[in-house]
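[step 3/7] fold_predict: job queued, chain A
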Amino acid sequence: MLPGVLFEKCFTNFADYQINRRIMEISREELVYSKAVIEFVAVAGEFCSFLEQAEGFARRDLADKSRKILPLLYYKATLIPPTEPFYEEGTERFVTEEEWDTIHNKIRSRLGRHDDYPEIFDPVGRDTEDRVGGSIAENMADLYQDMKDFVMVYRMGTPEIMNDALWECMQHFDQSWGQKLLNALRALHHLMHGGHNLDDEDDGREEDEDQRNTNNWIFTKRQKLWNEDDDQ
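[step 4/7] structure written:
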């Protein structure tokens, strides 16, 4: 190949590379400042602020506001367009273990004995007595960690870093916090509509675990049916 032709080919390839790179940069910037992303950031920020002030809410108000903001957060997450990371390394983390504990303890202290809920898995056998439980406070604190880390990185204002924070947040949505959100929402729905007295601010945690009324738990009902079948 003649030197002039080779130079022209290399220059053309380099120019194409620069153009494609610029298009990617513009697309990435358009994404992180898109309406869907900005609205998701706003809801995520409101969610974090709400949990940081959780101790100021009465038990019923905390449960009521939680069940309203969680579906909105989930919905906004489903509207985020797909993206790919720009950097190989992950983004910075801001929420410390102590901060996670603070959020967790705020929610747990307000919900009291209503914080725990039964989590059902397919049992191995009919005679199993294992009961797997969940915690609204734990779910919410985990959500807080993902949302707070994302919002803090997004506010740095660098499109590439904002993009990667968004990508990580959506990866965690698929793998973790999306399901935790739904678990907490299911438990909160039961609190608000299951005949619980949420206006009684007595913590009630001194109640022995074995004395707790579990007759309405699905797991308990299934165990009773299994035992009846065995007796027959």
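[step 5/7] annotate
The domain at 33-198+216-231 is CATH 1.20.120.1550 (Four Helix Bundle (Hemerythrin (Met), subunit A)).
The radius of gyration is 25 Å.
exit 0
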